[in-house]
Amino acid sequence: MLASLIQPLQLPSPNKDVFGLETQSSRTRSMDKLLHDVEGLFEAPLRPRSLHAMSEQLQTEFYTKLQSSNICMLPSFHYALPTGAESGDFVALDVGGSTFRIALVHLSGKKTARDGMEIKRMKSFVIDEPIRDLKGKAFFDWMATRIEEVLGPDQKAATPLSMAMSWSFPIEQTSTRTGCILTMGKGFCATHGVEGQDLYELLMDSCRHRNLQVQLQAIINDSSATLLSQAYRDPSTRLSLILGTGMNSAIYLPVSALAQEKYGNRSKSWHASAEHVLVNTELSMFGKDVLPVSRWDQYLNATHDLPDFQPLEYRVSGRYLGELVRLILIEAIETADLFCGMMPAKLQEPYSLDTGTIAVFESDSSSTLSCAASVFTSTHPLPAGRTPSPRDLHFVKQVSRLVSGRAAALVATAVHALWSLQHGLVDPTSTTQSQLAHQARVRATVACNGTVMEKYPGFRSRCQSYLDELAAISGQARGAISIEMALESSVFGAAVAAASESEA
């Protein structure tokens, strides 16, 4: 039984009155006791001073990885933020954990309508299990076929269309448009047989086989694309955050902040031009010995295909929030008589409780939680046609609130740690960096994107509240670190990257 593996609470015997009758059902009391246990494990570490201490520990980890890691704190080849004057038409590719999007983007400068960015045409393709199972060249052939579908007559243009790709997976970049493909994670098999090969050549080879008139100008991580897209609009942007199926962040740092070995064999001209560099943090990989751990976190990690690989992501991203709630519900069914001890068959399947479902529980403000009940039972019907009681439903809602609330606090803490890292690395002897330091003190914008930040009820506002508390403890004004949604940032950011390369 799962409950025995995750060490459930030992339940007390029911209370009885002097006549030997139960005055409170064991179900009611044990559910309350388990909920109290969940509250202790998920809320106790969230006091502002505790989060600030956690931020300082993360900063120490960041400093270490800036010097030594080859899988996180990866410097891109982009060393200049956009001016906001870049213009032209571009093909933007966004390869995410669950969707492949292709867009034709027009940039006209931020002083024009819509901040100078317009999507002329876009189409999305679901990346489901069969697509994630494609290995090596087959995955890139699938991408090229989709590009051909979207471009239509544009693929026959006399001059190749400039194209850029937002790639939401690790990559060891070797130039602005080339890089060695690394293990993708998220269930993808695309790197099988081609890991370490040039991502540029893998995609362009598939495009050439279809005679597509495109030229890949830039490959950029989705977190870097988000930063670039918002920086095109707002020059105070120095950080980004992606929080959807997965999570990541990009940061703009002095070149000197990273070990020389991180830059590989870059040209002298690159080093002569670059004072700062856009860094893909791979933030999901941090926090193994820093983050609070519950028995459900331990079970999720122990049964994961990649235990300890992405400790922060396992606690905060859309792929795992529903799973953590599922594990708690299973314990509640087996030990606290949730749903009268009846186990919905599908609930026993790992990752079967979607984060979207628990979001419905948090957004349902009715006393009966009728909407949440309908969504839950449509995918997880109880045996014998039984229905959850109001107490059952409110238990699920409270557990969802605790799991998502902790996630919001941890995300804010990680963002604060990155902001503090950036703030501490500014060199006051540099005029440019002095200006950056002044700007950071006045206002720092964190460009964010992803379904959890955008759609999960109250998540972004909770993150902002925790950030305000952490900023105050750090001696900054509340609101000094502001989270701003950068909608469609992956495609806009890819277009900005392509524009920057075209004008270089």
From TrEMBL:
Specify the Hexokinase N-terminal domain's residue ranges.
47-232
Keyword ATP-binding attached: yes
EC number(s) given by UniProt: 2.7.1.-
PROSITE patterns, sorted: HEXOKINASE_2 (PS51748)
UniProt keyword Cell membrane, yes or no: no
Hexokinase C-terminal domain location is 239-499
Q: Name one GO biological process term.
A: glucose metabolic process
Please tell me one Gene Ontology term that the record gives under cellular component.
cytosol
* Swiss-Prot/TrEMBL keywords: ATP-binding, Glycolysis, Kinase, Nucleotide-binding, Transferase
Fetch the Pfam families from UniProt. Answer: Hexokinase_1, Hexokinase_2
* Molecular function per GO: ATP binding; D-glucose binding; fructokinase activity; glucokinase activity; mannokinase activity
The top EC class is transferase
Q: Which family does it belong to?
A: Belongs to the hexokinase family.
This protein is called what?
Answer: Phosphotransferase
Organism the protein comes from? Aureobasidium subglaciale (strain EXF-2481)
